[in-house]
Here is the input.
Amino acid sequence: MSMLPPIRIVLADDHDLMRTTIEEVLQQNNHLEVVASCNNGNDAVEKTLLLQPHFLLIDVVMQPINGLQVAEKVKTSLPNTKIIAFSSHSNPGYARAFLELGANGFLVKGSIGTELLAAIEAVNNGNTYLCSEIKALMQ
Here is the structure.
């Protein structure tokens, strides 16, 4: 059986503890590799364009540019990079805005512990993923 190369991920969140926690969850899986961990939107754009990862996991609220602006810049230059956005706010409007821009998934930060890996797997298999909380609010 051949080993597939790891899924390469750029992670961006301006909250250090949240970013570190997500990174730890991801690193527990041999098939996932965090290639950059960014604490602001500009760094996220720069690292994503430079490293061309399979995934960008990005917080909605960041400075000096927010997650939606980052996603727009990345999708323009790297349309095949999959984007999963997350927020501490259960706001279906955020999810819709990201999906309309071409993002592939959306999570509420409270669901990251239970749904992040499922989201990555679903999106990697060509599906769109919304956490259960957002999905319920959008119905």
Notes: DSSP finds six helices and six strands in the chain. The chain has one domain: 7-138.
